[in-house]
């Protein structure tokens, strides 16, 4: 997905939020803002939005040093997800189709996205998860996902955010584990999941997990490690969570990719052809 003019205010808001969380000096903040605005002035609108977000983060690293700007918030939402998980399992275990319920919860947890909402609260997460249990979802898309999983020999599951990764694990537990490799980001960026979060969530205990080698909040293939590129090329099914992975991979040809996300952005909604707030299972080969 290309970058649109409407993306520019979001980039600026993300930068302002990160500068505030960095707790640096006014001089540092001014330096970051000037560089980001310079980058925006020469932005390549044919590139995916996470490419610009990656540049923002690299500017922050240059000014403040390499660190995880949302570390404590990420730990808080991982802990929250792990705490509520047992009660949620009790609610869905009696469902007629437990797999569908797990898919809905995994998508609902995609609300934990500081790139879109740096002021997300625990109440927001509780609300999204609670509503997911009674929410309708396209059963044809669920069946498409099931069929694709059953037919695939090698599945690469691309995780998105912290907290959300706990519900990814819940869903993956209902898949053929020997087929699956999961991938997380190579470095901390926004609140995207890294290997540390894969360990915290327990995901690393049930499937092979690799880092993609990149610091982009998405999957920019040219920036990923050889190990990840081989896993991507070898997989006959990619399951890609979240908006960042959609934005960076929706233009990839000759690859079976099923995107799963909560649509939080009007630009992504327009690109997919759905309203904001929708639970989406988007099969690139069938849409």
What is the level-2 CATH architecture name of the largest domain?
3-Layer(aba) Sandwich
- Annotation, overall tally of beta strands: 6
Query: What is the residue-mean pLDDT, rounded to a whole number?
Result: 95
| Total discrete domains | 2
N-to-C CA distance:
15 Å
Measured by DSSP, the beta-strand proportion falls in 5-15%
Helix content bin? 40-55%
Strand order within the widest beta sheet: 3-2-1-4-5-6
Structural class by helix and strand composition: alpha/beta
What is the H-and-E element order?
A: HHHHHHHEHEHEHEHEHE
Shape summary? globular
Number of helices: 12
State the CATH superfamily name of the largest domain: Uncharacterised protein PF01937, DUF89, domain 3
Describe the sheet with the most strands. Answer: 6 strands, mixed
Poorly predicted regions are none
Radius of gyration: 18 Å
CATH class term of the largest domain: Alpha Beta
Give the helix/strand layout.
Layout: H1 7-22, H2 26-41, H3 49-64, H4 71-92, H5 98-108, H6 122-134, H7 139-151, E1 155-158, H8 164-172, E2 180-184, H9 195-201, E3 208-211, H10 226-234, E4 237-241, H11 242-249, E5 257-262, H12 266-272, E6 279-283
Parallel strand pairs: 1-2, 1-4, 2-3, 4-5
Antiparallel strand pairs: 5-6
Helix pairs in contact: 1-2, 1-3, 2-3, 4-8, 5-6, 5-8
């Amino acid at each position: 997905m290309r970058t649109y003019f409407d993306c520019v205010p979001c980039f600026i808001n993300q930068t302002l939020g990160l500068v505030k969380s960095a707790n640096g000096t006014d001089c540092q903040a001014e330096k970051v803002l000037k560089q980001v605005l310079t980058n925006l002035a020469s932005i390549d609108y044919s590139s995916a939005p996470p490419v610009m977000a990656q540049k923002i983060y690299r500017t922050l690293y240059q000014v403040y040093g390499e660190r995880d700007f949302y570390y404590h918030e990420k730990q808080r939402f991982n802990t929250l997800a792990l705490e509520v998980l047992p009660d949620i399992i009790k609610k869905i275990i009696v469902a007629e189709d437990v797999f569908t319920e797990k898919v809905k919860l995994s998508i609902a947890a995609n609300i934990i996205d500081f790139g879109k909402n740096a002021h997300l609260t625990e109440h927001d997460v509780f609300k999204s998860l609670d509503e997911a249990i009674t929410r309708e979802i396209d059963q044809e898309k669920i069946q498409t996902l099931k069929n694709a999983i059953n037919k695939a020999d090698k599945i690469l599951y691309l995780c998105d955010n912290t907290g959300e990764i706990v519900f990814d694990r819940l869903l993956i537990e209902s898949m053929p584990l020997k087929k699956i490799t999961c991938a997380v980001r190579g470095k901390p960026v926004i609140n995207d999941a890294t290997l540390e979060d894969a360990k915290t969530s327990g995901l690393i205990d049930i499937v092979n997990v690799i880092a993609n080698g990149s610091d982009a909040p998405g999957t920019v293939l040219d920036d990923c490690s050889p190990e990840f590129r081989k896993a991507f090329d070898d997989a006959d099914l990619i399951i890609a969570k979240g908006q960042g992975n959609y934005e960076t991979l929706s233009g990839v040809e000759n690859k079976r990719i099923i995107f799963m996300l909560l649509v939080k952005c009007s630009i992504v909604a327009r690109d997919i052809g759905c309203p904001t707030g929708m639970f989406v299972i988007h099969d690139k080969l069938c849409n």
